Amino acid sequence: VQLMESGGGLVQAGGSLTLSCAASRSMFTLNLMGWYRQPPGKERELVAAVSGGGTIFYADSVKGRFTITRKNAENILLLQMNSLKPEDTAMYYCGTDPQVSDYDPWNPDDFGSWGQGTQVTVSS
Fold it and tell me: Is the pLDDT at 29 greater than 90, yes or no?
């Protein structure tokens, strides 16, 4: 599956952005899909993910501020980001296609399909 992210940009602290990830095939056939981010010089980390059955995972740092929405009929995964902070600055990636049956949503290495990423920069 091919993934394409959009919606990143430069925003002031306290602002909002909505990221969108478009999938090249029916999302009804996909298991867990997630948003991950990689700050400069750091490893990729889970931001939010949703399983095929609707179970949602959020990193503690974004709970209450970010909302993930999976729209299978439109083949789109959204990430609404509110109350953005400078520490949210990172490249944001959409990921899916678990490579193992006992995949861990918190481990990006368990997933085989990624988009090219979209940059989010939050100024203070």
Answer: no
Among candidate residues 32, 11, 4, 14, the one with its CA nearest the CA of residue 96: 32
Q: Give the count of alpha carbons within 13 A of 44, CB side only.
A: 18
Of the two residues 100 and 13, the one the predictor is more confident about is 13
The pLDDT score that the predictor gives to residue 91 is 98
Residue 77 CA to residue 3 CA, distance in Å, equals: 10
Residue 100 — φ and ψ, nearest 5°? -135, 155
